[in-house]
Amino acid sequence: MEHRLKDEIKKFADLDELSRSAAKNIFEEMKKAVARDGRFSIALSGGHTPAALYHILATVYYDLINWDLTHVYFGDERFVSHADPRSNFKMAKDVLLSLIPLPEGNIHPIPTDRFGPEESAIEYEQILRKAFAGNTAFDVVLLGMGVEGHTASLFPESPALDENKRWVVAVDVPVLPSKRITLTFDILNRSRATFILVAGKDKADTIRGVIGTDADYHTFPVKGIRPSSGRLNWYLDAEAASLL
Ligand code: 6PG
Prior knowledge:
single chain; six-stranded parallel sheet; 9 strands
């Protein structure tokens, strides 16, 4: 059993303060990665929570982040066109990618408009395997948590939760759009630093059920996020943390 550092739980007054702190720490991780490897790789989360963070990175950190050496990936994607308002890529493009001078080749969306879901997962896995040959994958992984404890598009009782060979799989999920492409725990847990951003009182009950507990990851998939680097950072606003 690898030794795991204690998870870092940070509570913030509101989503704005949470987002500003997350941006600052991501910037620190970027500087370390560029100094160590000459590049910085980050996997973005979808949903609503990270939008404010992405906009802060695109504005406050516009001149500070070395975009030429930054590579952006995605932790999951809804299997809809990248122009669809439900697309995680579209959200990131609107509030971050279209606002920064990131070279085209540094943006790695999950393809959804060329293949079926299975082919898309296979193609994205090839992209990731080419990018990350060693044991470590992303420098930073950003994740959210659904009200029932899903993360990325890893939902309760999904067969994808126990996938330990593939890095990317196509899944059917119980919320719309139901066809999703998601990274699996194997690659998500190879990150140097993982940030799970959770905000809102609707998440408070699940946060109480997962923080510091031995809850099963089949019930609460977010419990399957156990980075081998040992660095797991929970960023909670006051509402999400209100029952801790
Ligand atoms: C997605 C996300 C998903 C998200 C949670 C929380 O594709 O929707 O990757 O895992 O992080 O559903 O979403 P909110 O931030 O909107 O609450």
